């Protein structure tokens, strides 16, 4: 994740929505999401601990919403997290991003946000 990513100064989605996903994404089922960080919410779905009930705050979220945050399980996050985009980051409006930000008194992101480009390993060296 680039340091220019607006998510690094937000984190509202991680502290507003339930992060549920198919249980097959858990390590014990061959996936990458650590089992100790999830709770079963239905026969076939798990959720990140801390997001299954109000008040919501994912156990993987480190920092203060709106001031500076990071995901401590970023490389092992679920598809739900991987698919959630900040509003305008990919050129598309995401009303769920706006709703999460509003819940924390943060203004909606406005276009144009520039796409985040992570340098390839050979460009870093």
Automatic annotation (TrEMBL):
Record Pfam families: CxxCxxCC (PF03692)
InterPro entries xrefs: Puta_zinc/iron-chelating_dom
Protein name, UniProt field: Zinc-or iron-chelating domain-containing protein
Species of provenance: Pseudomonas delhiensis
């Amino acid at each position: 994740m680039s340091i220019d990513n607006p998510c690094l100064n937000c984190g509202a989605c991680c502290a507003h929505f339930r992060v549920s996903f198919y249980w097959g994404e858990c390590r014990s089922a061959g996936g990458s999401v650590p089992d100790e960080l999830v709770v079963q919410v239905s026969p076939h779905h798990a959720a990140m601990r801390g997001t299954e009930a109000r008040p919501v705050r994912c156990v993987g979220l480190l920092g203060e919403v709106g001031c500076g945050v990071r995901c401590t399980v970023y490389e092992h996050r679920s598809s739900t997290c991987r698919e959630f985009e900040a509003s305008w980051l990919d050129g598309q409006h995401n009303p769920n991003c706006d709703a999460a930000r509003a819940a924390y008194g943060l203004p909606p992101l406005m276009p144009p946000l520039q796409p985040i480009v992570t340098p390839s390993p050979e460009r870093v060296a």
